[in-house]
Amino acid sequence: EITSEGARYISEAIQSITTLQKLDISRNKISDDGAAAISDGLKTNNLLQELDMSYNEITSEGARYISEGIQSITTLQKLNIRWNKISDDGAAAISDGLKTNNSLQE
Q: What was the pLDDT predicted at 50?
C-alpha cells in the first residue's frame, strides 16, 4: 500500500512523464500530505484524463490540495475521490477546482 511518502515519489514521476493520461492510486493509505504531493505533480500535467484516488485517507484538507492540482488540467474526464474522509468543505473545494474544466464526464 502506498502511503504519503510513496505519493511524493509518484508526484515526481508525474512531473517527468509528460504523456500520462490515467493515474489510479486508489485503495492505498494516502493522506492529506500525499494529496498535497500529488497535487504538485498534477500542476505540471496537462494531458491527464482519469484520476482515481478513491479509498484513501484524504480529508477536506487534502481535497483542497487536489482542487489546486486539477485546476490546470482541462482534459480531465474522470475524477474518483469516493470513500475518503472528505466533508462538505472539501467537496466545495473540489467543485471550485473543476470550474475551469469543460471535459469532465464522471
A: 97
CA 32/CA 15 separation, integer angstroms: 19
pLDDT tens by residue, 61-93: 999 999 999 998 889 999 999 999 999 999 999
Sign (positive or negative) of CA dihedral 20, 42, 103, 25: positive
Grid cell, residue 25, equals 492510486
Residue 99: half-sphere exposure toward Cβ, Cα within 13 Å: 7
5 to each of 9, 20, 62, how far by Cα in Å? 7, 21, 14
Q: CA geometry: angle at 10 spanning 6 and 11, to 5°?
A: 115
Asked whether the beta carbons of 40 and 69 are under 8 A apart, the reply is: yes
How far apart (Å, rounded) are the C-alpha atoms in residues 73 and 43? 8
